[in-house]
Amino acid sequence: MMIRGTTRVFGIFGHPVDHSLSPLMHNAAFRGLGMDAVYVPFAVAPVRLGEAVAALRALRIAGVNVTIPHKETVLAYLDEVDAAARLIGAVNTVHNRDGYLVGYNTDGTGLIRSLAADLAFDPAGKRVLLLGAGGASRAALVALAETGAAWIGVANRTRPKAENLVAEFRDHFPGTDFAVLDLAASALAVVCPSVNLLLNGTSIGLKGEVFDALPWQQLDRAAVVCDIVYRSPDTPLVMTARSRGHRATGGLGMLIAQGEAAFRIWTGQEPPAGVMRQALAR
Length: 282
Ligand code: ATR
Fold this sequence. Notes:
Blueprint: E1 8-14, H1 22-33, E2 37-43, H2 49-58, E3 63-66, E4 80-81, H3 83-88, E5 93-97, E6 100-104, H4 107-119, E7 127-131, H5 135-146, E8 151-156, H6 159-169, E9 177-182, H7 185-191, E10 197-200, E11 224-227, H8 236-243, E12 248-249, H9 252-267, H10 275-281
Parallel strand pairs: 1-2, 1-3, 4-6, 7-8, 7-10, 8-9, 10-11, 11-12
Antiparallel strand pairs: 3-5, 5-6
Helix pairs in contact: 1-9, 1-10, 4-5, 4-9
The structure holds 2'-monophosphoadenosine-5'-diphosphate.
């Protein structure tokens, strides 16, 4: 890749950002299409986020991804936030349209795409057990409800957070029934026989931790399992699910799908099929 005076610059704001896989994915897609563009990491301290966003305009940076800890705070600095991102309350993609900054959230759509591509699963009319009530679970809940999930049960260690999450969205999605559950085997065992998708939005598994509150025996044999946590090798949750005969996927497919969606927003072009996945496999 040759950087010239005409090269368009994209990047990611995070803190830390060293371990981000997004530069690998996007630069591979630019190369694949022969585009005169580059994607670079920017370590932005929380107190400097406002300056960093202003710099997008000053430096005419064409677009950035936004990751932890800036996804929620960045909204205040943008000119426009698309409806889905506003509902989730988090932005992971910023598009610089001639100095006018528009925020999007491609995490939710990435999840839905990954469920389709990696598990052949469509949430419409389905029952979902969602573990966790943090930022990742929030984006998942909105995307699942928007896609027409019939029932979403939220189980969280800190129960009031699950209650708040459900209370916030219950009226917005009248077509979806919501429930709050204790993150305990006895409580989960009651719903597991009728669950179609088990989705982990907690950080359990990130470092290889095992979920001990899961009543695997009770989970419907046909249920599929998705772990938003991305880890290589797979998380114990994904490995156990597969060993018990469930179709299961980790967060890699979602990571790729959210990147592909951001790429489309920025460039109006489709990233070459499989290129982002291949870049991560190397
Ligand atoms: P993110 O934005 O990635 O979702 P977060 O907002 O910090 O991160 O949320 C982390 C989620 O993982 C929360 O649901 C958290 O549960 P609490 O709300 O009770 O903190 C959950 N979590 C993290 N470690 C956990 C553990 N050891 N056991 C159970 N839940 C855990």
